[in-house]
Give the backbone structure.
Amino acid sequence: MLAFTLRRAIQAVGVMIAVGIIAFSMFRFAGDPVNQMVGMDTSGAERAAIRKSLGLDDPVIVQFGRYVGNAAQFKFGVSYQFRLPVSNLLMERMPATLELAICATIFAMLSGILMGVYSALRRDTWLAHLFQAISLIGISLPTFLIGILLIYLFSVTLGWLPSFGRGDVVRIGWWTTGLLTLSGLKALIMPSITLGLFQMTLIMRLVRAEMLEVMRTDYIRFARARGLSTRAIHFGHALRNTLVPVITVAGLQFGSVIAFAIITETVFQWPGMGLLFVQAVQNVDIPIMAAYLMMVSLIFVTINLVVDILYTIVDPRLRSTVSRAH
Amino acid sequence: MTEPVLSVRNLQVEFASRRGTLRAIDGVSFDIAKGEVLGVVGESGAGKSVTGLSVIGLIDPPGRIAGGEIRLSGLRIDNLPPEEMRRVRGKRIGMIFQDPLTSLNPLYRVGEQIIETIRTHLNLSETAARRRAIDLLAEVGIPAPEKRIDGYPHEFSGGMRQRVVIALAICAEPELIIADEPTTALDVSVQAQIISLIKRLGRDHGTAVMLVTHDMGVIAETSDRVAVMYAGRVAEIGPVQDVVRNPLHPYAKGLMGAIPTLAGDDKRLVQIPGSMPRLSAIPRGCSFNPRCAFAFDRCRVERPEPLPRGAQSVACHLYDSVPAESAA
């Protein structure tokens, strides 16, 4: 088990180095960084001095090593537009994005699993058909449109919920949270639904399909022959067997939830990393773009690792193959 | 004779399909007494498994019991409300399925599954149920049960898993065990062990056993009586020695003729020409008539009813005392 985790961790480091190469090459292909930093009237000698002080004269491989070394310590250089360390900017924005992503995922998991189980067990009821219809909408409507529709309905027409921002936040150490104030919670509702809707429909359809599949297996038939209660069969035996693929999808989707938060954050002017990234793209702020790339990849890789470990907890068969194979 | 544990009368099971209603079981009747093993044989599709599933009330839609009666120790069970039938399953009727590899939930320890079943049916504490589970595993011949009880199904071999399945089937001391092809998925050497285990359990606990199989060897070794099924009907039923040594129904004769012997006479095994009709195309009269060497006019128009013949009962016009001419 330890060897397995270690092996996966080493693979993860490999992926991160590959991402580092891409992030690093963004600097080299997006023009001379010195030009971005100095004014028009800076002399050639001064430019050379800056170039030397920044280490841009060193061989590429040395520069790359330095970049990765710094990135590993969460030093991503200074933003061109804000003149502030990128890591500070990201840290400041990260709580907003993570809170949004976590709320969206919880919303997606809870309602997705409930709706999926219901529509699998009560296949021909009108509610199950309604869920199917909702899932079709969730899959086919683009995120920004759902966000705008929600704003139109709940902010503009009904005036129940704020249309933008995070509401009041409370500061706990370096972390800012909107979960502790009423306005923060209210502000969280619509962005979470917008961001989580696609995941919800995905999970719902997955749970439904898996549940129908599992209900046909021999061990469910045998569980019925043993006279277990319907409740125990559905939730104890069937649902748990559907959870392995659900964990995979929900886990991998959590990475994309953070990545695609860009759109939701733009629609709701949510002060998170995604909004920061969009502004960085508009201003060709390479250090932020590169750092964002690294951050999102790190989150993806970490989640993958966690999902792999979670499998072995849910499915005992993997536990023994894992320990046998390594 | 006392009341039979299981009494099936004129059972009819239908499946609704796009091409109309198919009758999978058509007028099956038999009894199983306490401690008795009834073997049910027949080709694939003869309705053996469907009979077993309808007794335990697990016929899935679009299938349904369309007629007849099933009584368990006198209590009619074919029309019980679902919740009451659930309490009969596992408690009064245990079932063993064909494939032990897929019968157990892979995500739970075998002990958890046994304890769950015990506690569903018997009012026992967790520790008492666990003790009982260990005893059960010991009884079905699993070595070191106090250790193995915490194993997962994939850590058991096929034969051992079938033993666990049997332990699950008997954990509430049922009156009747339905074993649906319990040995088909197992090695020949393991088959013999499982068969003798089922036989021993039936004897020790006085449990009635309905053993569904297509293996005549298994039937001959295990059963007290045997029912030969063909196209959803019982062709012949009787004590196993009689039916094996002196089969009456032409189909039963064909089946027995197809059993190889160790005596080594180099005659070719007799083969029944043709194959069983599909449910959608069961011939008029006796469903066996197109394949029967003895078929006469009456067989093609009139369906034969079971006729007692000594200890046996046979559904064949050859044994009807009424002359063929007058009946037609």
